[in-house]
């Protein structure tokens, strides 16, 4: 019988702590000294010796692995290590369901459809209300190929290839083309003759000042609605993107659009939407470079805001994702009409009560009562019908949660020490276009022949 107690280890804890503080050797040296100091190590079986050695390795030989950050790892970190309430206790499985039911996917060469009114339909555009600090936006951007900075090596190789191709094309053109003689009688345009929007450099060359170029993509985009002056997407900093100081090379710089609720509902009440005063080019030429640059930055900021607001108010989005503490009914009232037909709707809530209200507002009974008011030419009361139940088809409420289980003979049950928290629920539906008038069936009806 092998008895293992503390007296068989000649090396005391104080001596082990001194070895750790000395820092002269690695963890392996400490483990070797512990094994040599054990007086009855030879009495251990091979299995007991391996188990004892492994336990000492885990205690004194600390190792770590550096892994690249992704949305799955960030979600686990926020739930387990940080405050889970910051992300509305949105777990990885619920986050995956949100992206799946909203049909979020990569649109590399999406071609939107334009209606007769000029409204853009489709093109991989999603509308988002995100109160999780940007976790939902990060998950969507990962699925759409917008979350990570492009590889610098690939960019440089592409630029080199493009430069070589352009140089070869220029050389071939110069060899085949005729030489155009310059007319010395034509003078260079003076300052008064310069086109509006051009700036003269110190070397005499003109550089066009791009005043209204917003550099915004019209396809494969994420439009975020927020209630504050700036959107709370701070978790995007883990993926090299900061909304206060965005990187121009990051895909989110041109594919992520933000606007406030005030800009969506009443843009004229927002001073950012008002066009700045236009200064004539002759007056701009007399300004200092700093003031002139500030003027153009202000014009570009206004042009970007106006382009985002006008595009959002025009609608035609492919889907709507909501993860917010606001009432879903008030959000849907101002956003459902912005979706195109057959668009996907996904709403996450840590509790079920806000979503049961939406299920009731889009239920079959309430839709039938709404249609009765329409048939009788009466206006449906606002207090009974805050939302138009005709605009949504197939409302569904579901939940999912991964639970680790202990599997032992006669003791199989979920782990009792597993983290609690909110369950998390998801509302899904499809946007439909209500029919105008009554549905009538026409055509010849062939009565079945009776056989007998």
TrEMBL record:
Region ranges (Disordered): 151-216
Of the GO CC terms on this record, one is: tRNA (m1A) methyltransferase complex
**Keyword annotations from UniProtKB, A to Z:** Initiation factor, Nucleus, Protein biosynthesis, tRNA processing
Q: Where is the composition biased (Acidic residues)?
A: 153-163
Protein origin, superkingdom: Eukaryota
Picking any one GO molecular function of the record gives: translation initiation factor activity
Question: In which compartments does the protein localize?
Answer: Nucleus
Q: Which InterPro entries match?
A: TRM6 (IPR017423)
GO process annotations (BP): tRNA methylation
Q: Where is the composition biased (Basic and acidic residues)?
A: 183-202
Similarity-based family = Belongs to the TRM6/GCD10 family.
List the protein's name. tRNA (adenine(58)-N(1))-methyltransferase non-catalytic subunit TRM6
Q: Which organism is it from?
A: Aureobasidium melanogenum (Aureobasidium pullulans var. melanogenum)
């Amino acid at each position: 019988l092998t008895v293992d107690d503390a007296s068989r280890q000649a090396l005391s804890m104080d001596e082990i702590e001194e070895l750790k503080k000395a820092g002269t050797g690695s963890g392996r040296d400490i483990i070797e000294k512990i094994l040599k100091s054990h007086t009855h190590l030879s009495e251990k079986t091979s299995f007991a010796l391996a188990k004892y050695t492994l336990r000492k390795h885990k205690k004194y030989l600390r190792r770590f692995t550096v892994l690249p950050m992704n949305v799955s790892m960030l979600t686990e970190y926020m739930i387990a290590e940080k405050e889970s309430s910051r992300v509305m206790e949105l777990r990885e499985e619920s986050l995956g369901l949100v992206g799946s039911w909203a049909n979020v996917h990569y649109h590399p060469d999406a071609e939107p459809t334009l209606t007769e009114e000029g409204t853009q339909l489709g093109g991989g555009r999603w509308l988002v209300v995100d109160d999780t600090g940007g976790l939902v936006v990060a998950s969507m951007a990962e699925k759409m190929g917008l979350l990570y900075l492009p590889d610098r090596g690939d960019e440089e190789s592409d630029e080199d290839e493009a430069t070589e191709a352009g140089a070869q094309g220029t050389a071939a053109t110069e060899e085949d083309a005729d030489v155009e003689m310059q007319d010395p009688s034509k003078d260079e345009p003076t300052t008064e003759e310069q086109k509006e929007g051009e700036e003269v450099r110190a070397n005499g060359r003109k550089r066009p000042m791009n005043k209204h170029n917003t550099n915004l993509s019209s396809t494969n985009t994420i439009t975020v609605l927020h209630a504050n002056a700036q959107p709370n997407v701070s978790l995007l900093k883990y993926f090299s993107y900061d909304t206060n100081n965005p990187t121009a090379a990051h895909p989110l710089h041109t594919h992520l659009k933000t606007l406030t609720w005030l800009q969506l509902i009443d843009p004229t009440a927002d001073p950012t939407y008002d066009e700045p005063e236009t200064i004539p080019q002759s007056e701009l030429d007399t300004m200092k470079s700093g003031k002139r640059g500030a003027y153009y930055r202000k014009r570009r900021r206004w042009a970007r805001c106006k382009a985002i607001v006008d595009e959002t108010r025009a609608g035609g989005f492919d889907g709507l994702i909501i993860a917010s503490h606001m009432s879903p009914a008030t959000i849907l009232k101002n956003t459902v009409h912005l979706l195109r037909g057959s668009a996907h709707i996904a709403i996450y809530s840590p509790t079920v009560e806000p979503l049961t209200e939406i299920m009731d507002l889009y239920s079959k009974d309430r839709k039938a009562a709404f249609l009765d008011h329409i048939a009788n030419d009466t206006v449906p009361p606002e207090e009974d019908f805050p939302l138009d139940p005709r605009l949504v088809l197939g409302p569904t409420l579901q939940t999912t949660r991964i639970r680790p289980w202990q599997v032992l003979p006669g003791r199989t049950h979920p782990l009792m020490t597993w983290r609690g928290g909110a369950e998390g629920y998801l509302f899904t539906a499809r946007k439909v276009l209500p029919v105008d008038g009554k549905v009538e069936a026409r055509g010849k009806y062939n009565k079945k022949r009776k056989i007998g």
